């Protein structure tokens, strides 16, 4: 239920009365959204997961995690799920390497 406005407040298009959600609990909707986002990132962003694990300080746990993450990334690449991410990453790296005029690498002239 929306709160009542005071005399000094202006009406805002954002302050709309809330309609009750029928047939579900808001926490369930939020949980499903978080789970779906996690799974999409787990499958589609395996290359980034692998790179992140490889940046951690070397240890036995990091070595096992690196092997697992590299295998996961290779599996996702073999299936083709990682291709959009790879294309975007490659395009971004090309844009980063682009130079204008006599600009030197690193943006210094």
TrEMBL record:
This protein's record includes keyword Transmembrane helix: yes
Organism domain of life: Bacteria
UniProt entry keywords in alphabetical sequence: Membrane, Transmembrane, Transmembrane helix
TM ranges: 27-53
Descriptive protein name: Uncharacterized protein
Organism expressing this protein natively: Sphingomonas crocodyli
